[in-house]
Amino acid sequence: PELTGRENIYLNGAILGMTRAEIKKKFDEIVDFAEVERFLDTPVKRYSSGMYVRLAFAVAAHLEPEILVVDEVLAVGDAAFQKKCLGKMGEVAEKEGRTVLFVSHNMTAIDRLCSRSQFLQEGYIKYDGHTSESISNYLKSIQDYNQTGEIKWDDITTAPGSEKVRLHLVKLQNNHKMGNTIPIDQDLKIEVQFWVLDNNISSLYVDIYIYDSMGSVVLSTPSTQKANAIRDPFYENGFSKGLFCSICTIPKNFLNDIQYYVSVFIVNLEHLNIEVTAEKILNFGVFDTGEMLENGGGKWAGLIRTRMAWQTKMISDLP
């Protein structure tokens, strides 16, 4: 940390077994990639964490090691630099034919970069194989799978929330049946029950986030008046102390047949305070009832599979 950015470039090159001439040949390329030229002669202990990682990654990626080990480099730095790092790692692996060992909790980045992955838990390899299966095994390990389609808090003092609002229950239903296995051709109802503990709250809204198995948000749906497809009188009358229930209906033939996770937030609209945060508390799977398969189709690509309005007509005859 006492050495400058410039000195660290030469030091790291020497540790990797490169000559001064070899490092010098790559020097300008490293500095240009890291975008820290103005601070090259500043001790790196004065760098921010983002600047430090920029320089460290630039050195590692450009000094041509046989194996590039990258541990959570994308956890810091701006979006543009993260994108540049991903591009460089792909280039090192594909164009230069060198090995990249990428250690990360960023599932999207792993899926993009790696064809083979290992899922490790407490120092042991739990799965070694195709990346999609590794990601699936990892996500399953961190989820508390609830097969009933319901999670409930009976103790109002320990339920998720604040002194103003507490969560009581979140429930998944289709065709009046509770469960976490949803036929693709049936509506999914997500019911959220919550206690309001303060008479001075004029307006609240429930916000539901649906995630795919990669942890990406598929959709979010707030119960605010502007976002609601129906008129909700509570946005006009306000809330008093009591137990309330909000139900969101996700239409049939909308979500694809994959695994999803549900997060619930309750927001005080007056102050835009998040009173309740309950992340990924339920999971559910949508399954195809076989209609598409019978019609010569199969699994659709993508996260949603909405039926669109299509119409075909003939423009003219061929001569």
Question: What features would you describe in this structure?
Answer:
This protein is α+β, with helices and mostly antiparallel strands and 319 residues long. 26% of the residues lie in helices and 31% in strands. Strands 5, 6, 7, 9 and 12 form a 5-stranded antiparallel beta sheet that branches. Strands 8-14-13-10-11 form a 5-stranded mixed beta sheet, with no helix packed on it. A two-stranded parallel ribbon has the order 1-2. Helix 1 packs across helix 2 (20-34). The protein starts with a helix and ends in a 25-residue tail after the last helix.
What structural class results from the helix and strand content? alpha+beta
Strand count: 14
* Main sheet makeup: 5 strands, antiparallel
| Mean pLDDT across residues | 84
Terminal residue distance: 78 Å
DSSP summary: helix tally: 8
Globally, the shape reads globular
Helix/strand order, N-terminal first? HHHEHEHEEHEEEEEEEHEEEH
Low-confidence stretches: none
What share of residues are in beta strands? 25-35%
Helix percent band: 25-40%
Radius of gyration: 26 Å
Task: Give the secondary structure arrangement, pairings included.
Blueprint: H1 5-15, H2 20-34, H3 49-62, E1 67-71, H4 79-94, E2 99-103, H5 107-113, E3 116-121, E4 124-130, H6 131-142, E5 150-152, E6 165-174, E7 177-178, E8 181-183, E9 188-196, E10 204-212, E11 217-222, H7 234-237, E12 242-250, E13 259-268, E14 273-287, H8 291-294
Parallel strand pairs: 1-2, 8-14
Antiparallel strand pairs: 3-4, 5-6, 6-7, 6-9, 9-12, 10-11, 10-13, 13-14
Helix pairs in contact: 1-2, 1-3, 2-3
